[in-house]
Design brief:
31% of the residues lie in helices and 20% in strands. It has 541 residues and is of the alpha/beta class. The longest helix has 24 residues.
Length: 541
Amino acid sequence: MQPGWAQAQVGANGHRGGRGGQRSGHRPARHHDRRWGSIARWVIALVSVLVFSVTGYGWSQYEALLTGIGRSDAIRADAPKSVGGDTNILIMGLDSRLDENGKPLPPEIYQALHAGDQQVGGYNANVLMLVHLPGNGARATAISIPRDDYVSLPGSPDGVAKGKIKQAYGFAFDQEHKRLMAAGVRDQTTLEQQSRDAGRQEEVDTVAQFLGGVPIDHFVEVTMVAFYQLAQVVEPITVCLKEDTRDNYSGADFHRGYQQINAAQAVAFVRQRRDSVHTQLNFSDLDRERRQQAFIASLVFQLKQAGTFLNPARLRGLIDVAKQNIAADTGLELLSFAQQASALTGGNIAFKTLPIVRFGTDPAGEDVNIVDVSEVQTLVHNLIGGPTLTPAAPAPAPAPVSGSQSGTVDVINATNRNGLAATLEHALTPTGFTPGVTSTARRHRSTTTVYYPDSGAADAAKTLAAMLGELPTAVDSTVSSGHLRVVLGADYTMPASLGTANSATTGDSSPRPAPGAAPGAAPSSDADPDSISGAGVQCVK
């Protein structure tokens, strides 16, 4: 058990248990955490897209309704600010089964979501996504932070100096709640809101430090129930999958290709992290994040296509959900940011998931993601700019190859390190080779090989193999002319001259989804698994 663990519990009367100045000494069963982590992750991102996407007619008529959104002073007044008109917004989604005021949800909501009631869950920030809005109107970037990344907690809340990044909120909540109780505060609203503000501030500080001192100008927080309520307003929703998939645990039962799903099926879509029938798909927690990212892109596209923002009745329904389930910092001007982010509804946003080195355990035996902080901070700096607290030492740039030794390099990731193929492609950009297609193999391999189509490409293959660390080469007639293919195995270590790739990550009664209007077969090869475009309906695993 992690020292100082105090997962906020809620009793039948709506009050938290495990308080009163003592640590709870109990962590909720892990399957509950996983079930709601997926839902909460999607909730926060979706509602935030809603808030920042409504423009024109909708905002002129309904801005007054958004005054009901909860406000917080959790952003420090002396915190660094973005420059040049840029804006960074931290999206946080809580796994609490309570509303924004700490009150239990209606029984019918618990029944619909099939994930326990107010006695389950706590104050983990199971969704963490940094949205970067460039001041010049360029493409926005949404960076997903895996919730179990093992990081330093700058405020050491509850005496905990390191933990999962999602836990910063709950530890600080618990510490402040105990302090208030010791000071004689008994008003439940005061206890809830001040404890939440402490949690928000610690989570913001933790994320900012982890990402290398990136300014966080604003935050938006959403509770889990918003997901189901929003899905009810906008159903049916079109999604696309690359393979048939079925999972009795989440209730997922989907076919390959485009299809329309209802609110209940949407819950299963974003919760799924395993397949009980097609075990070769090798689902993981990171696959859920990519599902959620694709779902957001699809939903925003559909909202615009359906004219939802020009439909007063439907827009009112969306805003009512937002009012009940969203909190934001006091400095966030919703109308201003809606105008700035209007391009999001046109797909002008890219999603990126931060890499991990491997899955591991902390000193208490808890499952965590082991991360390379320098790798993460360098990646974030390259994506959105800003300061970097612990920059990686620059490696010498590899010498460009000659034209006769160049070619297009396709990379297949046959390891359990997510994002490795994309990282290698990026590292090859200045070498003279042309980045090609990245994909993920269905089966893992132990060794790495460079393949070339014929003898005319042998020299280029040898040059590439030497650059990648003296790899073996082989002829493969399935490689296209002018291309080279690198299949990455478990033995691969990227040379220092190219950079560090080793930090890449490793029962429902609902009807079957209806076929969607979009045409047929999904793509056969995986795109970069750590990046998703925001344009239209994306096909994912």
